[in-house]
Amino acid sequence: MKKWKKAAVSLMLSIVTMGSGLTFLETPQASAATNAVPAYEVKFLAKPELVLNNDGTPRSETIQTLGLNAAPRHINVEYFDTHALGLDAEGWNVRFRKKDDKNNYELTYKKRYPVINGDIDAALTLANQEGFDSSDDNYEAEIDWGYGKQTLSFSNTKKVDSRTTGTQLPSEKDALNLLLDKLPGKLKNWSASNWGKQQLTKARAFGPITFQRYEGTWNGQELTLEVWPIRSVTGTGTENIVEVSFKTDDPAAVTGLRSQLLQLLQNKNWLMPADGLKTQTILERY
């Protein structure tokens, strides 16, 4: 054996026998990103027959109690998925909307995770393992907290200059082309290369629906009431879904504020004691 080979073998043996003392030759380990820190959106369903007039506008008592502005904002929205709801099956929702006071379209790509038995940390850890962590500033993490359950979501919203006025949406084809053009990488390659692009290419519009958003201030907290006229189960008409909600990024305050709003709605007999995802209802009925 040549001398340089003997020297190499000797060095290798020395490295093995030195054990843990050889810290300067260890490969540094990259520290894992921490879990995302979510904001909160508290949502309750209200009984439309008690909080709305016959024309679908909020009653004066509703406006006064919740501190709402009498004039709403109008928002037109539609969702995109395949006929078989392939995106929804993987927890993804793709939304396209236009607000009456804005000159742009909002394109939102959202991934949802159920929160099991109130264990938010477990949902955040799972999301972290799938690429949604504190280092990703393209997505906003949020806990949707309804009457009986919580859902963790990560939303990526992109804005594109609009070519229409008011709440008018572009054609279904043009909207889909814009969504494909702005498709984020996480959805594009979610379960396989180009999986999301292939799904969205085959998608169609669910909607559109124009809903009204009444904004106000309750108990020092910004609050909204939304009225969604959604197609009825029979498809022969529409029924209003009324949602009262507020957002906060203060985890220490959210529980108390939620309890106060829940108590108010219960005392007025306005509360509908149920959970409901508008998105899911729209995907089922359109």
Helix and strand topology:
Blueprint: H1 3-18, E1 39-46, H2 48-51, H3 60-66, E2 73-81, H4 86-89, E3 92-99, E4 104-115, H5 120-129, E5 140-145, E6 150-161, H6 172-181, H7 185-188, H8 195-201, E7 204-218, E8 221-231, E9 238-248, H9 251-267, E10 271-272, H10 278-285
Parallel strand pairs: 1-5
Antiparallel strand pairs: 1-9, 1-10, 2-3, 2-7, 3-4, 4-6, 5-6, 7-8, 8-9
> What's the CATH C level?
Mainly Beta
Q: At the fourth CATH level, what is the homologous superfamily?
A: Hypothetical Protein Pfu-838710-001
- The CATH topology name reads Hypothetical Protein Pfu-838710-001
Strand order of the largest sheet: 1-5-6-4-3-2-7-8-9
Give the C-alpha Rg.
Answer: 25 Å
Helix and strand sequence: HEHHEHEEHEEHHHEEEHEH
Distance between the termini: 78 Å
Shape: globular
Structural class: alpha+beta
Total tally of structural domains: 1
User: Architecture, CATH level 2?
Assistant: Beta Barrel
**Average of the residue pLDDT scores:** 91
Major sheet size, sense and barrel closure: 9 strands, mixed, barrel
Q: Which regions are unreliable across 5 or more consecutive residues at pLDDT < 50? A: 1-30
Strand content: 25-35%
Number of helices: 10
Q: In percent, how helical is the residue content?
A: 25-40%
Q: What is the number of E strands? A: 10
